[in-house]
Amino acid sequence: MDINLLFKIAAIGILVAVLHQVLVRAGREDQAMMTTLAGLVIVLTMVIKEISTLFDTVRTIFGL
Amino acid sequence: MQMIKYLTLMIILASTTYIGILISKKYLNRVKDLKEMKNALNIFSTKIKFTYEPIPQTFKEISEKVKPNIANIFKESSKKMQNENAGKAWEEALEESNTNMTKEDIEVLKNLSNLLGKVNLEGQVNEVELVENFLDTQIELAEEEKQKYVKMYKTLGITIGLAVVIILI
Description:
The complex is a heterodimer.
Chain A: H1 3-25, H2 29-62
Chain B: H1 2-50, H2 55-65, H3 68-80, H4 86-96, H5 103-110, H6 121-168
């Protein structure tokens, strides 16, 4: 696994937190919610490959 | 190759920041335009009170005194008044104008057309005052929006640019 992925996810997390704060201050709670969800989806698409390799490893270890 | 990649990322960041600034400028310019419009209406009511010039000429003179995008409205309506009545000319000029004012602001200004050139001096001055009062509330609203949104759009531009750059790296 690439360590860069972790840094990338951390940076996206920080930016989404900032966006959320800015939008809430401006009184746009629903859009703040949407950005948070969008950030979540983006991060999930980034890590989905890693998760699938994890499952594969587990499967090979136990011989399922 | 690496060079091109970083260059593109820089361009993306710069452009989203610029878009954010552009959107926030719209709110700043709306307040400016509304204040300028109020200024112009003040000049108009003073002029019709103390000089007895016809409205088209007064409008032309006003258009020489205020900032260009407001002046255009007065110039256009002064031109149109040669063919149709004053109220209609004013409405059409407002509709064709290209300013930063919102639809509501335009609607408020259109109220002026009801009596423009139809009633005596006192009635017109009163009408202008009424519209100015409406404009005042509109300016207040615009100021509120400005304080709310200008900072937000600037930050949004920068952060969204950063997010895109990080995702693409």
